[in-house]
Amino acid sequence: MNATSYVVLGMLTYGPATSYQLKQRVAGTIGNFWAFAHSQLYDEPARLVAAGLVNQSVEQGGRRKRTYSITDDGRKALADWLAEPTLEQTEVRDTGLLKLFFGTQAAPEDIRQLARDRYESHRARADGYDLQRAEIEARADRWQLKTLELGLRYERTVERFWKDFLDELDRDPP
Amino acid sequence: MNATSYVVLGMLTYGPATSYQLKQRVAGTIGNFWAFAHSQLYDEPARLVAAGLVNQSVEQGGRRKRTYSITDDGRKALADWLAEPTLEQTEVRDTGLLKLFFGTQAAPEDIRQLARDRYESHRARADGYDLQRAEIEARADRWQLKTLELGLRYERTVERFWKDFLDELDRDPP
DNA sequence: CTGAGCATGTAACGAGTTACATGATTCC
DNA sequence: GGAATCATGTAACTCGTTACATGCTCAG
């Protein structure tokens, strides 16, 4: 059982879904900060079926597509995971940050370009979250909104960092 | 060539190193937000040697341990990477955030416990960064300090989020 | 009726994690 | 001189990514 397993179980608590629907549910929410490839969402449910945490119903005829639903054991497994202490360290895999770290090896224009790119990218994402919040505020549940709020605070912080850094580069060029 | 490759190349610009020394250089810096297993830092240099980006010198006698140094081609490859636009989306792999998202499936005490844990954990890390900054301020280069500063701002933002969330849970329990 | 984009799935490969094994050094 | 810890390396396995293949649906 890994993060993908619990994401599948969790998304199935909103109702039965095909892998494609799981993909969509993930894409609009936690996929924004933690990406799962569609192939993972096709593989993982099969494993969970084998473990008895998910039921599968196969469409008759056509593509014989598979719809998954969570079992009672699955709900139990999810609840147990939610009750467990969370030991893992957060991983922030940010290529821009790696590049910044090795800045001494870069040309000054490259650093500046990096900062501009990253600033734009994080600003765009933060703006997107703002819009999204306005859209879903009415129907989303409290925890989803909280998750989005952290995403937003994170993006604004990083946006601000690169902006400040750009200003600093102007005052004090490398 | 992936992130690990460039981390190895970048760390070798500070001087020749064994895999263990690479591990140490990474651990104190970018390993704080992007973890690399020690086995990766043993495998990757071998690949870079094959690609001509790194030289290997094998100790005579004893364990015949290998020390790596960056070649001119290696420096070029690193500089090219630094000059490239950075397209990848930042990935924030935070199990606590996943759990928060699925909060409707959790017991109220579990949510509260999660919030307390995450608050403590991010606060501890932020405090650690503060200390580290004070220690290295004199000798570290500008870009390393900037990287650390972003780490610090990030951790304080997340710390603050969980704190606010805890207060909110007190005012308005689930 | 045809091409574009949506939906479903699998295969192959590369990256990341965990476990194992063992040599060297230090400290009691 | 034995235990603990530091250091070096490899093997096995799992996970994640990319590419491939193809069916289905709907607009023009």
TrEMBL record, chains A, B:
Transcription regulator PadR C-terminal domain span: 92-169
Pfam families: PadR, Vir_act_alpha_C
Domain Transcription regulator PadR N-terminal: 8-79
Gene3D superfamilies (UniProt xref): 6.10.140.190, Winged helix-like DNA-binding domain superfamily/Winged helix DNA-binding domain
Record-linked SUPFAM superfamilies: Winged helix' DNA-binding domain
Protein name in the entry: PadR family transcriptional regulator
